[in-house]
Structure formats: C-alpha cells, structure tokens
Design a protein that fits this description.
2 domains; Acyl-CoA_Oxase/DH_mid-dom_sf; flavin adenine dinucleotide binding; 224 residues; Butyryl-CoA Dehydrogenase, subunit A, domain 3; Acyl-CoA_dehydrogenase; two-stranded antiparallel sheet; 6 strands; alpha+beta
Length: 224
Amino acid sequence: MAQPPNIVILVAKADPGTKSKGVSLLIVETGDLPGYSVGRRLKKIGMKRNDTAELAFADMRLAQTALLGMDEGQGFYQLMKQLPWERLILGYIALGASQCALRVTLEYVRERRAFGRRVMDFQNTRFKLAEAATRIELLGAFLDRCLADLEAGRLTPEGAAMAKWWGSQTQCDIADECLQLHGGYGHMSEYLISELYTDARVQKIYGGTNEIMKDVIARSLDID
C-alpha cells in the first residue's frame, strides 16, 4: 500500500453560485492537519500500482498562503490552461505502454511454440506485430510534433485532443492484440501483458473522455 501524500492540490469552490469563477486551487500540506483524513482505498481493475482513495475534509482550515496563484477564483482557468499539457502527457504514456506491450509480446512469440513452430513464424502473428509497430511509429511521430508545437506555444486544443484520444485508442488496441498473441497465458496476472491490458482501459476515460476529445476536434472543423 502506498503512503498517503504529504501534499494535496485541492480544487475547491467557495461560492457555488458563481459557477467556474468560484473555483480556487489550494495547496494542502496534510501532515497532522486537523480535519483532513484519508478514507478507504478504492479497488480498481487496473492501475493498481497507483493508490486511489477517498479524502475527507471535516472543518479543515487553511491559511491564505495555501492559495495557488495570486487571486481567488482562478482555479478553473488554471486547470484549463494545463489541459493541453496533460493530454499530451497521456499520449506519451500511451506510447510508452504500447512500446512495452510490443516488446514483451515479441519476447513471448519468439520463445513460445505451437504446432511444432514458433508463434512468431505464423503469418497472422507477423502481420499483427507489423501493424502494431507501424501504429507505434506513427503515434510517436505525431506526439513529437505536438510537443514541438507546445514548446513553441502553438499547440491547439484540438491537437492535444487528437494526441490524447488517438494515443489511448492505439494503446488499448495494441494491448488487446498483444494479449491475444499470448493466448491463455495473456489472461494470467503473472504475465506483464495482462497488467498492460487492464491499465490501458482508463486511458480512454481520464483527462477528458475520448468522446469529448472527438467533440473538441469536430468543433474545430466547424461541424454542427
């Protein structure tokens, strides 16, 4: 079990009636802070190496210095400003996970034999691996272009959305195909591909669901 965090960034709404303008970001140094507690750990189908838990705040008080930024009510805009960077990071996570899935699958099919042949020697296996390798190369090239755009200050919301949704979709597809090439062993937790498979699914959800990403892209195309 992971240790509770020493610092938490809290998204807080001071005035519900002000909508987005009432949101502020607060830096909470937990320690022995009165009113702060960590609740039950949540059980997930994937990303089990990362702890996810309920946090409770009961009459917790913070000093003015806990405010992240110069002014209150800027939290929503601070979060929105970081979205392109966050979505690009998720794209790169997808790239790394896809590369890992391909690597462990190559190791497996080179060693595993079926019907007197290496699994690697079957045409279907070779075609699936060729498709995965090509998709990984294309994803990497696109992400690197997005990173260059980000550093130059010209990464658009739709560009970041493309990186996030296409990266996560590629990750899920490759994890699925690579697990299939492992056969029944792919369903065993002792094989890394099973963890890569279950970890991949949430990538299409957090950071903005892939459906929202497609809507962001569609709006940039002026589609009603």
